[in-house]
Write a structure and sequence with these properties.
mainly alpha, 6 helices
Length: about 100
């Protein structure tokens, strides 16, 4: 649980500090059609395991996949959606109801 809180804090900080050194400027960042984040990708992400979602750079839709293409905003959106609606939340809610 602490890992998820730390991850969410880092994701939130990444959206706030977009002008730090190393972050691309508007001239450098050239989003393309690879940056598309829609309902189909969101739905497929919700069914993925944590390791598959977070670390796979080959399957479209995960934060690392978007990051490798320079789609930083979509990477954050995907991470936020996964944490809010993915299987980790469902597992936590199910265990809370059992108590």
């Amino acid at each position: 649980m602490a890992f998820l809180v730390l991850f969410f804090a880092l994701v939130t900080a990444a959206t706030v500090d977009t002008q730090s050194e190393g972050a691309p400027t508007n001239d450098e960042a050239q989003p393309s059609s690879a940056c598309r984040y829609d309902l189909a990708i969101r739905t497929s992400n919700a069914a993925r395991s944590w390791n598959d979602f977070e670390f796979d750079t080959q399957k479209p839709g995960g934060p690392m996949w978007y990051n490798s293409r320079g789609c930083y905003v979509q990477a954050v959106e995907a991470a936020r959606d996964y944490l809010a609606t993915g299987p980790l939340l469902k597992t936590r809610l199910a265990s809370a109801l059992v108590v």
